[in-house]
Fold these 3 entries.
Entry 1:
Amino acid sequence: MHEDQKYIEGLVTNNSGIIKQIYSRFVPKVTHFIVTNNGSTDDAEDVVQEVLITLYNQSKTESFVLTCPFDAYFFLLCKRKWLNVLKKKTIDKVTIDHENVYKDDSIPVSVLETDLFSQKDALFHEMLGKIGDSCKELLLLSFSLSSMEEVAVKLQTTYAYVRKRKSICIGKLTELIQSSNLYKQLKSK
Amino acid sequence: MLYQEFDAYLTGDMNPDQVKELESRLEQDKVLQEQFEIYQFAVRNLENTYDPKTAAFKANLEAISKAHFAQNTQKGKLITLNRWMVSIAASVVLVFGLWYFLSDQAPQYSDFDDHEQAAFVERGNAEVMLKEAQEAFNTKHYKDAVAFFEKIPTTSRTTEVTYFYAISLLETNQFSDAEKLLQSIVNLDVMYKDKALWYLALLQLKQHHLESCREYLYQIATDSEVSEKAQTLLQELE
């Protein structure tokens, strides 16, 4: 584990002091990169927030351990995200050698792990959007209320029914994920 | 039925025999195992997505982000205004005599080498080399200071002493040794980290490695005591 794990832990525990340190120490370099590569400070603000939310999600669901300095790790993640944005906009005038960003041999393992998680996370949210409104409502209640009994009361139905529906809805989500093309691509990585 | 089994397993609602039976099937059936792993992945992500703490984190992050970018936009506006005023002044100079405007536009190390006074010798401290090093440093006899610093026993080498030793090495162009000491301070001492980063930037500037200089300046915290100097140098490097 790297000593910079404290930044990951600070995100996961919503520690304002650590989050502010991340912004003051590491974000200016990202902002400079984006602003000098066809972006704006608004773009930098969005990219940074998305990356930090990804790091939070990864640590909450996978117990992520950082094995390199946070500085390089964070910068590379933001750089790759921005270059993907530009790629989708099909802007040609990228001033840096963006080909190097896609070569894996010089990139820290932690960056590749987070990159992979980021794609899995995006796949999950995409499929969550496709399971239908009644499943979405049921899952929202199931995971935010403290018990399934409360969910049953809220939906004015039985405990047995909501338990069964919950597992069916998660099953539906599972099947959507498993049958997607992106899942098949990620599986091969 | 299968998904109800997975749900019961993950919520701990199965008896030990049922647990054992399912785990045995998972071990033998790779297709089943894959389905279970995706189901489990979905459950973990749902727990995180709908956790009130996640919403609280995102709200806090949004607030900190807005404050950071608002502050830096203000600084950007001030920098633009200062540059405009400098441009006007430079134009006036050009009008009254272009041949006066000969100096190199790039920032120089000598513009920023105004070091703070060393005061690491405590009253009553009898360590001679510490006193000699401090005196030599404060009177700008850096070559002598380096010689004295080298003789200070390891037990007396606090971060503060190491910091001034590194500056002395920088002044005498011993870049590699200075860099090692400054980097060790960055890695080990939160109190001196930003000041060490400032000197790492100056070390690069002295060798005219302007891009590397910039890289160090970006790492300096905006609320540190050296951030104003760092911003000034960054402006001059652009």
Entry 2:
Amino acid sequence: MSKKACNQQRRHFLTTSAKACIGGATALAFPGILHAVNRKPTIRVVGTHVTLQEIIRKKAEEDLGIHIEFYPGGSAEVLLKASTNPDAFDIYEQWSNSIKVLWNAKTIQPIETKRLKYWNEVNDLSKKGKISSDANVGYGDAPYKMLYTTPDRSLTSTATDSISFMPYVHNADAFGYNSSIIPKGIPYVTESWAWLLDERYHGKVAIVNAPTIGIFDLALAVQAKGLMSFQNIGNMSRREIDRLFEIVIKLKRQGHFRGVWSSVPASVDLMYSKQVDIESMFSPAVSMLNGKGVPCIYAAPKEGYRAWHGVMCLSSSAQGERKDAAYAFMNWWLSGWAGAFIARQGYYISNPERAKKFMSEAEWGYWYMGLPAREPLRGTDGNISVQTGDIRTGGSYVKRFENIAVWNTVMDNYEYTLLKWNEFVLV
Amino acid sequence: MNLSSSDSNRLRSKILQCLPLRKRIAMGYLLFTALFILIAGLTFFVNNNNIDTFEDVSTLNNQLLEDAQFAKTLIELELAASRYLYEGHASAADEVYHLYSRLQVTLKQRHQTITEDPIRENIQSITSHLDHYMAAFSQAQKQRKLQNKLRNRQLPELAAQIKTSLDVIVLIEGENSLTQAQTYQLENALLGIEVDAQHYFNDFDAKHIQLAKDNFIRTQRLLTSWHQPKLQQSFEAYEKLLLETVQRTRGYLYLLNVVMSSEAYEMLYQLDQLGVTQKAETTRTEAAILAAIHGQTFIISIATVILLILVLLVSYFTGASITRPLKKLESVFKKMSEGSKEAVQIDYKQDDEIAALARAAEAFRNQNIDMHELLNRYTLLNETLEAQVLERTQELSESQQKAEQATKIKSDFLMMMSHEIRTPINAIIGMNYLALQTKLTAKQHDYLTKAHAASQSLLAIINDVLDISKIEAEKMVLEKVPFDLDDVLADLVNMSNFSMVEKGLNMYIDVQPSVPEKIMGDPLRLGQILLNLLSNATKFTDFGEVILSIRQMPEQKNMNAVMLEFSVTDTGMGLNEAQIAGLFESFNQADLSTTRKYGGTGLGLSISKQLVHMMHGDMGVESTLGKGSCFTFTARFDLPDQPQGNPYQLPDVVIGKRVLVVAHHATLQRITASYLKAYGLQVDIAASYQEAIQYLNVDSSYDFILMDWDMPDIKAMEMIEGFKSSSQSADLLIAAMVNPYGHDDVIAQAAGTCAIVAKPVRPCSLLTLLSLVFGQAVPEQQFIGGKIFQVDHRIGLQGSDILLVEDNSINQQVAREVLQRAGVRVRIANHGEEAVQMVQKHYFDAVLMDLQMPVMDGYEATQRIRKLAAFAGLPIIAMTAHVMGDEREKCLQAGMNDCIAKPIDLKHLFGLLNKYIERPSASFKREALESSEFILNVRCLAGFDIPCLLERLGGDQLLLHELLREFFDQFSGAEKKIRDLLRDGKSKLAEELVHRLMGAASNMSANTVYEAAKNINIALLDGASDISDLLDLLDHSLDEVITAIANLRVPPELV
């Protein structure tokens, strides 16, 4: 066990024992108090299962001494909730592609960077769109483009002292495949989005059921296969959308796709039950499958990744004590522990150096540096998901984010893609 | 049944005895009825079972129907949902919920009734997707209402408010007022926004909203410049409401197109999977039902059989219980009518019909008592008579014992006699042999030949008598030594094949591949039995074939022993049943006339059968008169300790080689093919030359051809030519199977065959052939037994020294001369003591030791010699008239190396001497000879009388070759030398050379050369001056002889 982990454990022990002492003292000092009104501030967090995890909630409550309520839900559901009713939440956690909607709906308020304790540590990927000088910005709405707010309520990439969202969790996604059936490819060389349309995997392919995400998987696949190309894959024209769906609907009619999946557990189940061999995938699903003994590989496509960026937004209704608690929660998120926690399911945090302090050297090496694992590593579920010697596909954090093909984006023709998506799903 | 049948019978009859006959009959009928009811019950039960299984089927069918119904309802639900969501029919929403509750009920029922896992999972999955779908639907319903409210009420109301305030603002005086033109502009903007929104709600194209947004921005700018904060707020509220409506629309669309559609798809997918699973389940159930029906049918059949048996048993016992007392009564009356007294006692307790009869009988008995008294007297008389009979029987058995003893004495006598007779016969045969080697007139030769044959027959008879006597006197002991089965076969072929070939019979040897090569037993006796059967077969077969087959009997209990079955099948005259019956008895051939016609003692089969019994086997014959006989016997042999692999295992190269067998006779085809296949070759068979050519034309990949030399209708030479010309490959290998007694082998060699195999073909011969053909070095021991032609062991004995210890002077003479002819130096000792002295004085390679001698016998002499350290390794071979069993053991115990039977078989003697005398150079040559099957067999050569010469050489081909070569070396060009010598005046030398040539030609049966040389010799002795004519004659005849020898191609490995 590394020294850091030791410290971490010791600290956890000290905290709990200190609390126990206080509890004991309270009971002795005020034996007459039977009931007390809870005076701690409460914040309500609306978001998805990706970050709204019970362990995180408990840890944050413990560290911050506040009450936190999590309201996890499906992407569309929470977006609707957040874009229509700012009173229903204090903090909203979702993807950067929901920012425009929320901002236009005026249900979120600007966040003051001076109140963010670790703002200086947030890296260039989130602030300037490039993790290094060699990196691709990628098509679509790169988060930095709508990071800063102006007094006239528009979004810009030019730095100001207020932001529309606090950038935190992010990742570069691709498809996953079962290497016991599909021969292992070479990252960035042979692995390609075109595999999703490969006839050899007929009937064994699934796509994520989300037009703002899945459409890019399909588009990247069709483009990689050489069936069509896009002027701007991040903002397709209606004609391009027509052509794209013409191709994939034809394929689906022929039985190429097993179907679509709507949740991470569903995607795990599809591959675990051998219904699919290759599918759009999120990083935790890969860890879960590996933990269950399915040799699922998260591909590093030569065409680049489909990236996403988690955003944490402040409800326009949050004021006073609640707003303070919300800021505290945001600062807590960047204070290291949470970054280290979500690293274990393959996600990155926007200020990695602080999270590093909460990770073993082996974990840091594997998850961020692209080095072979020096020891077996556990996922967030406690199962060993990384064996000694494993190397994260796609390499280091920097390497992966240098290869961005497109960001998850709500395109101008979003409504149109919904109608087309319906056809694709039901055919 | 646990009771033994007699016990149960007794029990049954006791029970039954208690009932009167009428009741017993009634009971029988009752039992029958009960059994039939049982059958009916069982049938009913089975039918009931079948009904159950059919219910299973119908349940399954119902489930399938339900599934179809379910799918229909589901689709109806989705249609209703669409009708509501897209067209807004309120009733459709109600229908959705109605259908949903129906589906829920169905799903719940199915989930409870289904036990099969995959179907359960399907149902669960459908249930969960349906729930999600409905959750999304109800949310969509809510959204739809909200959206409608926004679109149709709130937005228009807000727009109307703004319009109203615009109308009002024109009327207001002051700085907040707007001109008419300004309000028009704002109204237009508002109208534009409303139109854009309407467009958006029609086609969901976001560009309309963008236009509206631009419009809002422009309007806001105007309002700012016109200082209209109130209106600004109104427009702002309108924009916010519009955007909320847009967002709700988006959410609504998302619910419909993404969430609900994916759930709907998954439900249909799972329904499809359910169909697949159900179908598999149906197939499985159907199979199970079929199996069940089969099982039940089986049970009914078995039950019926059992019941039938029960019915039979019941009828038997019921019947018996009625008939038994009747029978008893019957016997009582019968005995009474015969006047027996004690039989009237009838033990019958029941008061039934039978009892009444019994009482009547009792009365009858009383009247007959007087009669019985009379009878008693007679009985007494009878007993006296019986005692007398017993006495007689005892006397008889005593005399039988005496007779048996007499037989034994007779056998002992015969045995002794045979021994005694053998010694003089030995002398007769030996002397006769020597006499035949001398120069004789034709008449003398004929007499002696006949005498020789007669004495051989006599010896055979004596041997048979000796054997049968030994067996009867129980003095026959079988040997148990390891031996090669093939050696026995080779000897058999040597001894019996010639006479078969002479009669025009084909002999075949068919050995099953699994028969072990090395076994333990008595090879001589085995050979004796087989030879007897083969010579019988030869005797009684005039045309056709004789097959000797050997196979291993299955199911060997003992791992260390094998039971072999030997059979000799012929196509001869056959035997009728009467002949077969007496066939194996002593002194009995098929009939006496046969004995006269074919000779022999008729003891052979009897001896063979008894020997076979001693080998733990049995002998039998099957025969069809006029068609042939098959003599079969079995014999058990132990296996040698060292494990033996398959003796016919060839290296892998041979496996898969392709061979074309060309043979006309079906038996030859079959046997040859089975051997070759056992070695792993691929075999094709052509029955004629034409067929073979067809094979070769179709397929050129044969590795070699194995052809029978004697094909009907075509000469072998022509066949070989044909094969060579039709084959694409220049080096097609052809091997020929040839009868060894002509000069076919020479011709075959000349015709370019790669190898020649002698017929009958043995497994070993083919093994050697394959090894030679495919150039594979084969371990030496696999070659042994490969000898087909007789090999003269005299080669290699030349120059060796042997001590002959023998008291009988005739025997001394025979042995000495025989040995000296083989180039052996012989010294003679008259008894054992002399022998012990002589071995210390002279060097000997081996000692031949007689056993019974005056002064000191052979055993003691051997023991003394062995005590001298220098002679521990000196080979000593016993010569005895008693080689069988214990005699041999005694010899070996005394320290002798081996023993040989008298009269001495020369081949055996030379073989033994060669075995024990170590002469490396000679033995190498012998080895080469033994290992070769392919000695050039010379039967005819221009200028020589080869048959006569061979007879003198004992048929030794190798010796013949050596002599021919020597003759060639010495006398080629002799005629020219004679001329030269005469021309040079060296007449003495010329005379010498002519003399030598004359002698050699005489020895070699080169008769014309001999005549020519003799004439020259006479002429020279007469001092004739001109002998050129005679020299020309000699030139001519010598040239013929020398050319013939030169043309004789000697196989290189023999040079």
Entry 3:
Amino acid sequence: MAAPAGRRGSLRIYLGAAPGVGKTFAMLNEGRRRRERGSDVVVAYAVSHGRAKTAEQLGDLEVVPRRRLVHQGADFEEMDLTAVLARRPEIALVDELAHTNVPGSRHEKRWEDVEALLAEGIDVVSTVNIQHLESLNDVVDRITGVRQRETVPDHVVRSAEQVELVDMTPEALRRRMAHGNIYAPEKIDAALGNYFRAGNLGALRELALLWVADRVDDALEEYRERHGITDTWELRERVLVAVTGAPGTEHLIRRASRIAQRTRGEMIGVHVTADSGLTSAAGDLVQAQRRLLEELGGEFREVVASDVSVALIDVARAENATQIVLGASRRSRLQRLTQGSIISRVIARAGPIDVHVISAESTEEERQALPLRRRVLTPVSPARQAWGWGLAVAGLPLMTLALANLRQDVHLPTVLLLYLGLGMTVALVGGAFPALATVVGGFLLADYYFTEPLYDLKIGNTEVVVSLVVYLLAAGLVAVLVDRLGRTRLQAGRSRAEAEAMAALAGSLAEAEALPGLVAHLRATFGMRNAALFRREHVPGTDGRWLVEATAGGPPPVEPRAADVTRDIGPDLVLTLSGRPLQAADEGVLSALAGQLATAVEARRLQAQAGRASELAAANDLRGALLQAVSHDLRTPLAGIKASISSLRQRGITWTPEQVAEFQRIIEEETDRLDNLVENLLDMSRLQSGAVRTQLGPVTIDGVVLTALAGLGPRAERVTVDVAEDLPPVVADRALLERVIANLVDNALKLAPPDTPVRVEAGEVPEGIDVRVVDRGPGVDPHDRDQLFEPFQRTTDHGTGVGLGLAIARGFLDAMGAEIVLEDTPGGGLTAVVRLRRSDQRVPVGRR
Amino acid sequence: MARVLVVDDEEAIVRALSANLKARGYEVDLAATGEQGLDMAARRHPDAVILDLGLPGMDGQEVVRGLRGWTRVPIIILSARADEGEKVAALDAGADDYVAKPFGMVELMARLRAAVRRAAPAEEQPRVETE
């Protein structure tokens, strides 16, 4: 049945993250299914890559014979576009959409061929890998280190009617690889092995999933970041949210968290403990909100200050916040008039920082439980003082005027009492000074206007003198007492605030927060630019050197003396704060906090000691195991040597030349084994005592491998070496690397049955050079692999064992800054991969 | 000709022992594990057994106990471990002699002869037949 003419064919694509996930299989499978349903399906181009299951799917599908081309002396096969067009099937299966055709074909790219088929109304089912998409080319290059030459424009794939993702977990893919289902074992070299690393595969798979979900743009940002392009951090929001303990703050915190997350920014919550004693709600609520904040990934700061808005702005500036989140005011209109709205003050001071005012949800219980603000008057607040003076200046004349008019009915006692009343009111409002001024003013006015002789400061009557003097004393006392009362309240409030701050810090210490966190906490508590912990390092002949142990905020001072505030924490430990001098009132708090910090530091030191003690105990255990193993491992080859040599030397027996040769061979082999073991023991001892000194330099792999094998004696004759002579040199210690390779090969020789090959190969990979020691033995279960690196993990003393080899290999490689991993050999066996840096490579910063 | 069973998994030792025993006219059977050793002993009835303690799988002591269950064949233990406790346990389990590795071949052969000699009289007793 031919395809209807006039309409464009539809394109279906199977998209995969890596070779081997099963795209061709899926394509062929769909072809078969549609054929069974009656469609006319041909295979225009399909490759089985030697994979059995795929070949099976090909089965009896009709295949359009490929076109043979000769290019530059070599034979190539391409899809025969002309033949397929002539055949006019309903559906054509075309594998590998990104393929570049051999010169001499009609189009340069296979996708252009496919376009031609679609134009003729033929439906096409095709396959493509994620790394072939043009838009993702640079990302994939960065991930895999392999530049893709064959690309497909995104629009071609996006125009498909259906893009189906053929997905497979990296583990499953690697298993397929290990079973030899993707590539034959001989084809897997260092580069390919590296491509199929779990990390690569995972990244590619994610990329494929994201592309299909059409979210590449923002997710791509993430990829670009992870691969080394860092954002300037102005682009990230740092959101400051005011934690007040009021109900409804949870809503604020969640909003702040969402704002932060949009740009993968950070969230900081600030609780301002007013030192005026102005409370907002119970401390429990604050703690609950703090927990929520930390759960959502934010940091909590506790600050003591008199003015909430100033404190918020200070913290915001110190933390380089980009946004401040506040809840809509809960104060009544009257409160806002007299005390000012925190929000408007914050907005006024915020400068370049955005301020979000979020209207809080109000539940029924909230409306009932709106916190009552106790109006505690603070005598020292400038605002109040101003009010006090105003009241005095306005009140005295007014009162005098009023009383003067009522002179007939009102006498001196009443006048004095009224002036006293005014004085008390002023004391309550504005503190001692305006009150005292009022009192004295009242005294003078009373004297002038209300005592005989009138309009004269002289006093005629003795009794009146007494009254006036008593009035002055009493009123003055009242003013002073009221002021003192206020200040005592202030002090109590401050003390409570300090106690809260210390309790919070103690809580952090108890939770074993790390030193940097504590230092940050101190910095925020005192509103300093920087807080740092200095440790003195003793240098013989000098006073010692100061090193920064922990720091928070801006850059630390060069040395403790350069800071604004210093406190000794321990014998060689100093806490410094920089930013402004310390208020006298804060001294007490700082001393107490410093004391707690000192305790915490001491506790950590003891903990570290305990840790070292247990390490020593472990080292002792190791030595015990070492001795046990030595007694057997050394004696066994010696026994062989002694048995052979004593046999040769005994009188009375004549050995045949073959027998003599056999004994000699045994002696040599066992001597080599003994020598190897002694070397290993010495190496292990060096590693344990940290006495390994590495001399790093450029080392050529082939030379090292050959030397290592030579040292292993006749056993190593069956090892094949596949190392290119022109492989770039690596950074390594030659002697240590030789030991490593010798140990790995020795291991492989022990593990692999005598008739199986052991290969040493080396190849270049993006990260450097991989040296692989491949055996085809029984392999090792992934769960047990880590154990292999432990020395002497075997408990019985049978067999030749693998006691030390891998432990030493890893120890030496660590000392050189290289790494080793164990993998499955495809088809069975163990492969040890040593990754070394090329000598012309720069160490990537921030990797690992 | 006397028959000796050598139970050891160390190739070098086995070869050396085997060559020496054969050169002295013994017949030699070899076993690499404890189970094989017990099996061979049951089938071949050796005149002496040279047994290594450090075998894979079945413990050397178990082999001694297994043999002593049905035979009084002389057993010479070889071991690379110097543990006194091990020596005592093996001898108490029924072994006749203990030779530490590394050993001199001449000495081992002498001990072997002694062990066989001690066992022989029992087999050479005149068998009294009664009607």
